[in-house]
Prior knowledge:
This protein has 563 residues and is an all-alpha fold. It has helices spanning 3-33, 36-42, 48-62, 65-78, 83-96, 99-104, 112-125, 129-157, 160-170, 174-188, 191-209, 213-226, 229-235, 240-266, 269-277, 283-302, 306-316, 321-325, 341-372, 375-403, 409-445, 451-477, 483-509, 515-540, 548-562. The protein has 2 domains: 3-316, no CATH class; 335-562, Up-down Bundle (Methane Monooxygenase Hydroxylase, Chain G, domain 1).
Amino acid sequence: MSETIYGIFLLLGGIGLFLYGINFTSKSLEDAAGDKLSKILEKATSKGVYAFVVGIVVTALIQSSGAASVITVGFVSSGFMELTKALYVMLGANIGTTITSQIIAFKIDSIAPLILFVGAALLLFVKKRVVKKAGSIILGFGLLFVGILIMNTAVDKLPIDTIIADFLAAFGNPFICFGLGVLVTALIQSSSASIGILQVLVSTSAVASGIALRDVMYIIIGMNVGAVMPVVLVSFGANRRSKRAAAASVMSKLAGAVIFVVLLLLVPAIVDLIIDISPAGNVSRQIANFHLMFNLIANLAVIPLCRPICAFVTKLMPDDEKEEYTTKKLMFISSNSLVNPALGIRQVKQEVMRMAYITRDNIKLALDSFFEVDPDKAERVLEVEKTINYLNHEITGFLVQLHGKALFDADISEAGIMLRVVADIERIGDHAENIAEYTEELKSSEAVISKEGLAELRSIADHSMQTLELSIEVYEKREFDRLGEVSDLEESVDAMQEEYIENHIQRLKNEKCDPRGGVIFTDMITDLERCSDHAINIAYAINGEKSTVTMKKAYVVTRDLNE
């Protein structure tokens, strides 16, 4: 094997180890921080300056602006964080991630094997979790610097200085350099990693080739803009709020880059200042300082533009009313609802009805996903189920708080009814989730349900949906005179369950049914019958009784006697 080929292998291996080291370190820091990061980010909802600082701190802790931004976009997607606050956090994250390049510039790769050994020893031989987590972080840094050590060795064996010099001579155009930087970081999905690689390659060959900071500064700017790729990728297939967050992040990156380049053209002495404050001849430190200076100036300059940017992307991608309705947040209840408990009860009723209609629509979507064998619709069902669970938790907690307030007897009774209704709605939501999972099972296992079985499932599904829709209407409008209709529908579902299960057994005996599909069939029948049971509980809750089963029987007997 020639020395050149060996050098190429070394370089590729060094880059691979370096990238893995950065990723491993980031994951280890994130793991060490645990849920605190999410909680800190979740609280970044007050003033913009606070959100900006939170972004810096969190990213400085985990050394991944991509991870911090993706978590933030998740909060925007769920409705927990406003778009403007999220953009402040992401701007701060851009600054926090510059620490990695500063660490790399210290050139401690010569002791990288020792760092690697200490990290591995702590991780493998110490039982305390805190020490193991620290060992994991140290090991990550060790891998990172060993990767740099290998890259340095490779560069000595390859004419990297000539290659870089020739490239800059042929393609030194700022637009090409900017585009190259964007492309490299978009592929690696980490500005810290791409700039770290640039630091190693340029600083090692700078003496021989005369490559200076001015030659690569547009590449650095492009690498910073390319760091937006993780946010863009996470927005694909996500809701409108995620797409707005990604668009706002891209616009802020481009705006910051334009502002900085204009400033650079007007005041070229900025580059001289960076060179002067860096150690003489240390191009790696110059790159790190330029990276830091760019992020400080660009992101601070964009802060006043946050609101206009967010307003523009919101206008470009307006709210989808249906999507907004299923957002994981309270729409009718607020902290002020506790000030006037009587009004609070009515606001809770609105929230309960919203939860009921979301659940009804989710059951419909789950059934569509099942009969159409559509995994995308099933995935949407699972996403909406998170909102149903959230509403169950929040409404229940709020009702408990209301119980401690001065309420009229009628409001106390209504609060108790709503607690039971919310529990039944949540259980119906769980059955929608089950049905969505059957869709995925049908798709993955290629299970088959006979035509007769599908026809029976459609029939019981229609009756179960009618029971649910009528029950919600009866509860909302307190239509006592329609409880009999609900009972009839629910009883027809019970009868269908018995009949269809018996038919299914006969088909199995006659080998007319696929056993795998048969299991899904019986599970579906059970879920739909239980949906009907929970639905009638919702309807009969208007009588204020705790046991709707006993009440239903009494009502049916009374109705039959009157007839």
